[in-house]
Amino acid sequence: MNDTAHALGTSRTLWELAARRAALTPDRPVLLQDDRSLSFGELCERAERVAAGLYGMGVRPGTVVAWQLPTRIETALLSFALARLGAVQTPVIPLHREREVGFALHRAGAEFFAVPGTWRGFDHTAMARRLGARGVFRAYDGEDLPDGDPSVLPPPPADGTSVRWIYWTSGTTSDPKGVLHTDRSLIAGGSCLAHALRLSERDVGSIAFPYAHIGGPDYTVMLLLYGFPAVMFERFALPEALEGYRRHGVTVAGGSTAFYSMFLAEQRKQPGVPLIPTLRLLAGGGAPKPPELYHSVVREMGVQLAHGYGMTEAPMITMGRPDDSATNLATTEGRPPEGMEIRIVDGEVRLRGEAVCQGYLDPARTAEAFDEEGFFATGDLGHLTDSGHLVLTGRLKDVIIRKGENISAREIEDLLHGHHAVRDVAVIGLPDEECGERVCAVVERQPGAPELTLGTVVSYLRAEGLSVHKLPERLEVVDALPRNDTLRKVLKHKLRERYSGTVK
């Protein structure tokens, strides 16, 4: 990390970080989208006007504001406006529907809720009304954002260690968990990413994942530290998005394993012709990375691939460095940065450091998650190599990671147990090159019940309000689920062994 980035990394709050960067390079772009551009200076100037508008609506330091918005420049402006005010913001992934959104609004005690209106054919405003959300307002384009005179604003927050962010992760339970972050924990996470990737002001990044994901501030902190821009994609799809990558000269792309696979598939349509001429690095995390995928990307795309390990509770834990050996980049998750301690306890990965969250909304979950020395128990299994690289070998958590998003197996199981034809069910993740994992439902059918098909199961879950990205992509109907001999617990590892090697 260069001296300027290191100095900026000591900022107490995200707003202080943004203001210090704006003072250094006010005219340099930070966010690019289609034919629009926002500079570092404009980010702060416009965010203060939005903050003043929010203040006029009644938003104060500590006010809880939820937002469910797509990856747009306006979303970043609203988020930084809330950071300027010192409000508590709780981002919600736009794919989520009544079940997750209603739970998040209620548990966080949201007093305001920003939505995009009707987006991609779904009316978010109507959903918010059905849920009885308070303070609903549209924040999709520039004209929708609140506006006001910044002279009315109180001083910016000076404390970076107060909880001002509530992110949501399903983990292994049917209800989402509210993860508590501070400005400092998010700055530390973004610094970890920036330090590992060794980028410079000459780079051009890309945000092709939901800005409401924990990766949103993680990536934005990196932009603020190094002073380079990123292209925002409201909807990522290939080959359509390639024009944006090429037009803006993106040098660093990625997001997760699924993104690598998609870029590689496009590259294979024209072997030997650079897919994105300026691209030099793919980087990301969020899902397991097969070693062969690393080698294929390097060999066929002619770019480096650096993969990392993070989670909502600690957005950046380890990261591969572009100058690591090919073996380490292919087979490990990289090394932890300075300030992140990793301890392996009975095979489980445990963490301690500034980038780790403060815990959960539920104090009981917080007590369970941290040991007596303050280490966070990830539920992931792994070991450290002699060189300090982390190798993950499995998960204790019963969670499926599809395209970088955590999916609770139990949530789907609980819903399917309500189907009249289902006697018992186990939901598992199966390896998939493009998605990381696919959702597979293994069902014991009720005696005499009509035949179950994947289509009927998906239709049932849709009617129950399950988010589209959680729907099973495979169904197996069995006479009996494998169980142990004591408590008759379903042996999911047996199911994974049985079905991982077959494709249907």
TrEMBL record:
Residues covered by the AMP-binding enzyme C-terminal domain: 411-484
UniProt superkingdom: Bacteria
Keyword set includes Isomerase: no
Molecular-function GO terms, alphabetical: ligase activity
PROSITE patterns for this protein: AMP_BINDING
Ranges where the AMP-dependent synthetase/ligase domain occurs: 20-361
Keywords: Ligase
Presence of the UniProt keyword Ligase in the record: yes
Protein family membership: Belongs to the ATP-dependent AMP-binding enzyme family.
PANTHER family per UniProt: ACYL-COA SYNTHETASE (PTHR43201), MEDIUM-CHAIN ACYL-COA LIGASE ACSF2, MITOCHONDRIAL (PTHR43201:SF5)
This protein's name: Cyclohexanecarboxylate-CoA ligase
Organism: Streptomyces glomeratus
